[in-house]
């Protein structure tokens, strides 16, 4: 009902604006035209050649097309084709090339950005699908030259990037395409930002969860690179991503932000994200600012900051996720905040009662962290929940024992950390927040708390979680073939969970069972391996180096 009302109001507003304009007034219509062009003869104004396979679009009677290099098989697109100051405002299809990649010399911005309600309504942008749609075909590779160039999908626009296990879609750097990048190199290009109309607690909402003038600055927002997010539609759709890999990202942009692998800014639950990988990122792997987008089958490798970062009221879910930190770098597996711009002196009772704080649901997560002391950002650690977040975490594992804790027992390489009065109170109550049926193996077991009258570790154990006793000065291998007292993982890659009935912690059966699923963690040797075929860096034949902890 709310959506219908908004569309009626939008139509009325546009009609009123048109009525007030004479014949020399503004034409108010979003540009979402079909851009299909006959590429068999090349041409246009992109310097194309015959049988040019590069992407092209038609706008205002002019055809623009990438330039094809028959020797490399690559298509190159200059800033006149698309850039931050020259966004894509018509639909575009990026095809799979036989051998090459699509090289963008500028940033790839999809759709216009708006930072006020009136202009956005006048343009006819109210929900995902109203703006331009970028479609990337299965098997395509899209690349950028350096860390000043990045990708933004603005509100109302959509990214449809649906690959397959045989033909994944890759967003990466020119150095990767040219084969000069190292396996853990970062900051080779900026990264991806997707902005939606979902709810963020950076904006104000009435009792019906409606808002106005909700235009939060997105990461990377400065000058022509500015983009905004936010709204009141947590069901909004920013498109569909499946079998997608994002590699070698990261940049500190003009306003001081650090770009992630992918930033999901108020992205709604109508967005489909399945089988997603981030690989070698300078900042976070994925970061959610509000919204309700959910993820199924997520792989993060060699993320230098937080592999999963949550803030501003994100209320989606993650089902099946494998996080593998570098041997020498990486901060949190999960770093999470409930309320944007949180201050412990403020009263957030009303905000939390309205359900505006972050409420993630995470099931089947395996975190393999390195207990290193001096990473790019901070020491390696497991999960951190704070600032009014209400987490629901089940059937997961944090393993930080493959190498000795470089910091000893001082506490910075913790498995589990919980802070803030709102979060600890919710976990003590156990109705809207819960951490249950998980296994932790770190020398530094916990930090923070207490939960109610209990210390954090005691509370966690009482709520169905298990902690391994890991020495501070030595590694404790958690694989079945290596140690009889700690047995959690198996297989040559050491990432597959052992059957729960056979798991051992502290020389004893774990004594917990998976909740509504067959196993703990992201993967089981007895189940189908959702990482096979499309991921990079994990399996032989599609990686530049072996995993630092895998068993030979």
Distance between the termini: 59 Å
Give the overall shape: globular
User: How many β-strand runs?
Assistant: 34
Unreliable stretches (pLDDT < 50, length at least 5) are: 1-34, 36-48
Q: Give the DSSP E fraction (strand runs of 2 or more residues).
A: 25-35%
Largest beta-sheet details: 16 strands, mixed
User: What value does the Rg take, in angstroms?
Assistant: 24 Å
Percentage of residues in helical conformation: under 10%
Structural class: mainly beta
Our count of helices gives: 6
Q: Can you give the mean pLDDT?
A: 91
Give structural notes.
The chain is mainly β. The chain is 9% helix and 29% strand. It contains 6 helices and 34 strands. The strands form 6 sheets. The protein has a 16-stranded mixed sheet that branches. It has a 10-stranded parallel sheet with strand order 7-10-13-17-19-21-23-25-27-29. Strand 31 and strand 32 form a beta hairpin. The longest helix has 18 residues. The termini are far apart.
């Amino acid at each position: 009902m709310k959506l219908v009302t908004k569309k009626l109001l939008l139509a009325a507003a546009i009609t009123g604006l048109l009525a007030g304009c004479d014949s020399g007034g503004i034409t108010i219509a979003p540009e979402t035209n079909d851009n299909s062009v006959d590429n068999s003869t090349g041409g246009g104004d992109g310097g194309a050649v015959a049988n040019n396979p590069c992407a092209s679009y038609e706008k205002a009677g002019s055809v623009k097309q990438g330039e094809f290099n028959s020797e490399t098989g690559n298509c190159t697109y200059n800033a006149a084709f698309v850039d931050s100051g020259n966004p894509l405002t018509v639909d575009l299809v990026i095809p799979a090339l036989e051998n090459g990649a699509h090289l963008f010399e500028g940033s790839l911005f999809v759709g216009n950005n708006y930072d006020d309600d009136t202009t956005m309504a006048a343009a006819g942008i109210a929900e995902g699908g109203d703006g331009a749609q970028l479609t990337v075909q299965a098997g395509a590779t899209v690349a950028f030259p350096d860390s000043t160039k990045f990708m933004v999908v603005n509100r109302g626009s959509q990214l449809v990037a649906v690959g397959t296990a045989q033909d994944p879609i890759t967003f990466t750097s020119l150095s990767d395409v040219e084969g000069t990048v190292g396996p853990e190199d970062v900051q080779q290009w900026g990264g991806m930002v997707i902005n939606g109309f979902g709810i963020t607690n950076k904006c104000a909402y009435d009792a019906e969860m409606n808002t106005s003038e909700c235009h939060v600055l997105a990461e990377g927002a400065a000058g022509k690179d500015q983009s905004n997010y936010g709204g009141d539609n947590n069901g909004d759709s920013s498109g569909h991503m499946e079998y997608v890999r994002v590699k070698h990202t990261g940049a500190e942009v003009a306003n001081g932000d650090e770009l992630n692998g992918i930033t999901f800014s108020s992205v709604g639950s109508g967005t489909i994200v399945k089988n997603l990988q981030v690989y070698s990122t300078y900042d976070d792997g994925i970061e959610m600012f509000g919204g309700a987008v959910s993820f199924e089958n997520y792989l993060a490798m060699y993320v230098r900051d937080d592999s999963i970062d949550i803030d501003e009221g994100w209320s989606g879910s993650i089902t099946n996720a494998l996080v593998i930190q570098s041997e020498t770098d990486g901060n949190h597996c999960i770093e999470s905040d409930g309320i944007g711009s949180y201050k412990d002196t403020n009263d957030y009772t009303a905000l939390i009662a309205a359900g505006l704080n972050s409420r993630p649901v995470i099931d089947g997560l395996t975190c393999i962290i390195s207990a290193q002391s001096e990473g790019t950002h901070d020491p390696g650690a497991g999960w951190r929940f704070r600032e009014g977040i209400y987490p629901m975490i089940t059937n997961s594992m944090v393993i930080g024992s493959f190498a000795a804790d470089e910091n000893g027992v001082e506490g910075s390489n913790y498995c589990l950390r919980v802070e803030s009065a709102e979060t600890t109170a919710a976990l003590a109550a156990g109705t809207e927040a819960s951490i249950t049926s998980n296994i932790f193996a770190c020398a530094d077991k916990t930090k923070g708390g207490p939960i109610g009258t209990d210390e954090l570790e005691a509370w966690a154990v009482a709520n169905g979680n298990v902690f391994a006793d890991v020495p501070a000065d030595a590694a404790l291998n958690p694989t079945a073939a290596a140690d009889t007292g700690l047995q959690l993982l198996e297989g040559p890659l050491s990432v597959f969970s052992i059957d729960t009935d056979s798991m051992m912690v502290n020389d004893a059966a774990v004594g917990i069972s998976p909740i509504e699923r067959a196993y703990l963690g992201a993967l089981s040797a007895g189940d189908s391996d959702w990482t096979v075929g499309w991921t990079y860096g994990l399996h032989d034949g599609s990686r530049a180096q072996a995993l630092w902890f895998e068993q030979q």
